[in-house]
Records
---
Amino acid sequence: MKTLRSSIFLVAILLVISCKEKQGNAVTPESAIVYSSNPIFPGWYADPEGIIMDNTYWVSPTYSAPYDDQVFFDAFSSKDLVTWEKHERILDTTAIQWAHRAVWAPSIIKKDSQYFLFFGANDIQSDNEYGGIGVAVSDQPEGPYKDHLGKPLVDKFYNGAQPIDQFVFKDVDGKHYLIYGGWRHCNIAQLNDDFTGFIPFEDGTVFKEITPESYVEGPFMFIKDGKYYFMWSEGGWTGPDYSVAYAMADSPLGPFKRVDKILQQDPDIATGAGHHSVIHNNQTDDYYIVYHRRPLDQTDRNSRETCIDKMEFNPDGTIKPVVITNEGVIANPLGE
């Protein structure tokens, strides 16, 4: 009898250990855990920006297609990172008369009661071409958005930066900065209150270069524990070695010294993992990296999917290398 009781006790211990998640005093069996899966929604989409607005997760990507077909943006919303609702054509070039192709990398931010969508258009190759970074506005996150300026906000190659891959960063003091740039150069500029232009820095300059080592494109910034994390993409977006690296500083102006690469391909999962953003759920203090990658069975440069994986930190604040997965992340519902 004693042996039987010991065996039963051992089995009970093993059952508890086999449970994957523990929440308070309750244990959740692995079979009950719901994952997002990767990609998180169907279709060819790239350059995703993830953000929480109005207690909802939002992901706004580039429609990944030949440049002349990139004339609109779709967006996706979710309450739990698992079930996503598609919002079609929240903005297209019929609403932006100066944009006609290659609309890229939407960046949406809520300010007061309005939503502003920053985007790149026309893939200009010199100051002699018309295009660059524009701004659209809407009264709701799913649009429809309309042109805020009637012209580009940035239409020149300041400091050598191609005016693409825009990201709007809100600092703790309430200031908003536009961080952008392709062609291996990155600029930062302080936006004015209504997002119609810029406020010069104390030295009179408008665009300050903050390019770190190995920067190519796709900038992103967030704050954690008083540190500014500046992230970007390295390598060529059409190849398998596209990746994400980062730097840390005490100010959004830097200086930023490259720390390490934290997101890259896994030959067993996918290639070309890059052009990302970061979602922070401050209710659970979980961080997620949203990015695009190319399936192993695809070679076309536009065959890119939007994925999400967990992003974690070391005790010293540095970022751990991200493990890209097919499972994605565990459902994380937003509380009311």
---
Amino acid sequence: MKLWGGRFQKETDEKVNDFNSSIRFDSRMYRQDITGSIAHASMLGRQGIIPQEDSDLIVKTLQEILTDIEAGSIEFDIDAEDIHMNVEKILSERIGDAGKRLHTGRSRNDQVALDLRMYVMDELKTILGMVKDAQQTILCIAKDNLDTIMPGYTHLQKAQPITLAHHVMAYFEMFKRDAMRLSDCLKRTSVMPLGSGALAATTYPLDRDFVAQQLGFDMVSLNSLDGVSDRDFAIEAASALSILMMHLSRFCEELILWNSNEFSFVEMDDAYSTGSSIMPQKKNPDVAELIRGKTGRVYGGLMTLLTMMKGIPLAYNKDMQEDKEAIFDCIDTVKLCLPVFTGMLATLKFNKDVMYRGSGKGFTNATDAADYLVKKGLPFRSAHEVLGKLVFYCIQHDKALDALTLEEFHQFSDIFEADVYDAIRLETCVNMRNITGGPAKEAVERAIAAGEAFLKTIEKG
């Protein structure tokens, strides 16, 4: 008989039992469920709600059950529906009536809300550590490539010269925002709902603050209806993870392009590449492609959570059982992608000469040539027009700007002098941009220092 079966005269249909059960996926929360129950049982004894000897026995037995689960000596029962009922059933089988006192003053509604919050908090801390690892790898690449000049792009067209250090530090900033979002989500997840009951709290004199303190929560929920029916924290976590995956996907897309023969900016390490079953020459960037593809899974989890919650009246509804598989898959996917992404990144071989040669094509120094005229007194719009005509001339004659003679420059403006050649050198173009956020070596060194300071603020899970 089910633990809630007192008012029922018929057994649950077998198909309904399978349909209703969540143990196949929520069993992963066994540690959070048992830890939460230990805190609850300790509080019940402390408050005199149940005998202290029963409280002590429950705590001791729950610890033993946790050890047995982790040793693989317990098989969960699908008839017990979920991890919460399974643990309580095992407890009652071991210690009888004392175990049946554990559920005093709580409902599965606030129990599952507690377990899920604890699980999400634990996993977000782990993911924060993985993000930090990726950021540290980016910093290492940046430090090694402060002088590695490469073309910067807009519309996937060569635009202006930058450095590889500047380019990868853009992703450091993206991951920094990801870390901040995950940290902020942790704050809003750290709200202890136990004590909300099914929806209207309880008549027992629970010490909710004690339980919150025991479990490491920052605060307790202030409305019992919201306590059992809030899943904002799961939606927010899925949103933050979706944005993180979007950043991973963007970086992977660039690496896929750079790894192509057309770019040849990077070469993937053999350990992070695969071959073809028919074409012996192939070395495919499958790791980067898979990360790009798995981004859609995380987006799907976010949409599942948003759609599931959008029409649910207060308080708890069975629809909310669907929250777990969605957020679990988001978490699992990110945890699968981040370490392999970091390993792939750390083992990349950058073809610096190819990057430099690429920077010299596509007139990436045209803006600097226009700025040269502006600094000589010509209005920017006029300078822009002069350079537009110069670029067209170069295209017609298959020349680069720095290959023009001074006489050719003078065909378009008498302002040009011999110092124009230094002004449009790639190194000058990069290192003159020394303002905060710029690609100059000194500016990027300052950004790296700021990045290192930021990482010290992130606690690794």
---
Amino acid sequence: MDRHCHYFRWRKRIVRGEEKVIKKYRSEWKYCEEEADLLAIKQKLTALLEYDSYAEENGKYTIHSLYFDDYKDTCAKENVAGEGRRFKYRVRYYGNNPEKLWLEKKEKLNSYCYKRKCSISPKEFQSIIDGNAFDVFWNTDEQLLKEFCIDTVTRRFLPRIIIDYEREAFVEIISNVRITLDYNISASDETEFFLSGNYFNIPVLEQKKHILEVKFDDMLPSYIKTALQADVLIQQSFSKYYLGRIAVQDKKKYNKRM
């Protein structure tokens, strides 16, 4: 039996659930707020919580994410349709260090989320992009990376959009709470330049509008909820990936009219 047959036998085992991953979904609340409002919230959080380990001297760090979708754009369409259960893949690096890449699979179940991640080398990443997912599949022990290789072959997942932004993140370790303020979100469809950073960005949101996300397990402590003014803010359902796709499409339509 050749390697390709073994490959698809492994895929069937995943589908049948023989290789199970215990999933613990977390609540995820999202808000799109004015810069002045986020500044007021940030001042309260600074007095209560610690910055996360990625923070630089100013408390912020830059995130670069390359999102994938299949040939039918299923991930984007499910987001528009408001599907309760969906997922997406992304490859991410922080700051100016594309040598340290992370593959992530984020699953959504209504307002809950579950994320898995593993490291992926630039060589593995490029090999998959070049259409050599089989080579990576047979030379890794990472289950998530194997699943990603399977989907790039069977469902033709391809790079779709780059999303960049500055993040300021606060954590409460005991209750496993993570609060992120994401600034200056931008998008680019020049995916071939993801690792070099040499691509043109398009703003995703209106000027001085940013995103607040709150993630927690079972319960959000009341003192954090009060600091966030969670009873006043209006929760929204949106995806940086989808917003980025729309922003790039709108820009192209505008350029054609000019």
---
Amino acid sequence: MFPKTTYPDEMRALLLTASEGNALPLWQAVPLTSALAALPAGTLRDYFPLPQPPEEQLRRTASSEETGAVYRLCALLVRLLSGKEMPERTGPSDRRAVLRTLAAEACPAGEEALFRLLDRGLRLEPTRRFPDRDALLSALREAEEEVNARVRPGLCLRGTAGVFAGKTLSLAPPLTLGRQPDLCQLIFPPDTRGVSRRHCWVELVWGTVLITDLHSRYGTAAGGSDLSPGCPSPLLPGQSLALAGGAQAFVLVRE
């Protein structure tokens, strides 16, 4: 979602949102954390205030740059998801309770996957954390797929207007909606007015369906809001997806 070598304005805006005590959803928080993981470790400390790893707080032998970065990134993810700092002075059992509660609130479709990841990344003993940022990113990808695998099978689009009205279509993101058969997976007839050849993109990020308008001529709306081209927006069960000003419309259902 974010370039891995720059700080675009959108990334800065999300970091500012979190710094003001606001929580971010998983589909924004994890890509932001992953993008930051690609930056030099020192940048994390300079750009965003993060809790020190316990070994640095106690002035013991400093953690390696990598295990310290893993701790800071996981602490950042907690901050992004909760809008609150991770308590710095808690025992292992208290810390695990905090993480389990956060994981259940942020990721009800697969809280164990998120809990296991945060629990390891925030271990008090550096040698028990992920050995480096690449290992953390790999674990994030695996945890996301575990969550998505639970959500994906029951997702459907139910047509409410247009050529698919009255039909229920299984939704297996990622896929593109549009008129061009070789580029789209949900294909509209060639003469469907208001639907572009590649109209919008549907993906599943940490159990949340995201819709991105692909610069279509007549636009896309998700959950009642018109989408800005190229900017993903969540579509929750029960909400509508509308193309061509509502001439073609669906509701997202989870069976």
